[in-house]
Design goal:
- This protein is mostly helical.
- Helix content is about 70%, strand content about 0%.
- The chain folds into two domains: about 130 residues, no CATH class; about 140 residues, no CATH class.
- The radius of gyration is 20 Å and the shape is globular.
- The chain starts with 5 loop residues before the first helix and ends in a 21-residue tail after the last helix.
Length: about 270
Amino acid sequence: MTTYDPLTLLFWAWIAMAAWMVVLWLVELVQRNASLVDAGWCFGLVAVVAGYGWFATGEVERKLLLVVMVSVYGLRLGGYILLNRVIGKTEDQRYQRLRRDWRLSEPLRMFGYFQLQAAAVVLFSLPFLAVVQNPRPPFSLWELAGVMVWMIGIVGESLADRQLAGFRAKPWNHDRVCRDGLWFFSRHPNYFFEWVHWWAYVVMAIGSPGWWLTWIGPVVMGVALVRITGIPWAEEQAIRTRGDDYRRYQETTNAFIPWWPKTGQSSSAPFKN
């Protein structure tokens, strides 16, 4: 089987993702729902890592393990976004706001935004290249520890998404704040466990010459979620739609790291059905 050096793999990953985002942008022009790019990002990452599994040098067992892990992560998250934010859904208010701000230049700027997501896929694929090139034997203690961290992140994020979707499915919760389950302990438990998931690859790559690349995952994703595209956007939208109830939620509940609410939390008990 032919293998390629990391730079060649990154180049072709970027070409493939740029083309993939052009296709999604064309679909978005018709559907008028840019949330499609969020699902496309997840599916694109799965495709890129699958390519690394086939064409990168490294132990077959480790590459297979990594492809399975990323496929479970990306297909679950991408499928969740597709079903809950794209198919038959109104476009996320973040993108509606961008359309209003960009006005006549919106199609061109949206194209640039989609291409930025293509570059982001390649950037976040770097940790996986570091993992597959780890010279340690497959299934070392560090690698198994990384799989455990991965499981915590995936299960936690899946549970948070399920609890929020279940809450929103009830008509009487339309203008209420979700405090069920993990949302009792954090205003954004889905983001927290997404961040935890990226630490798995840091642990798995210990001993790899490119170990430092794995820090791109938790560091860049952490900054993006906490300071840029995650929590700030979500909080702004929540205050606009849920008002004082959400402000009370902010006063009592951590934004990111799950912890017991401050005294005075007036909400349902955790893990309410």
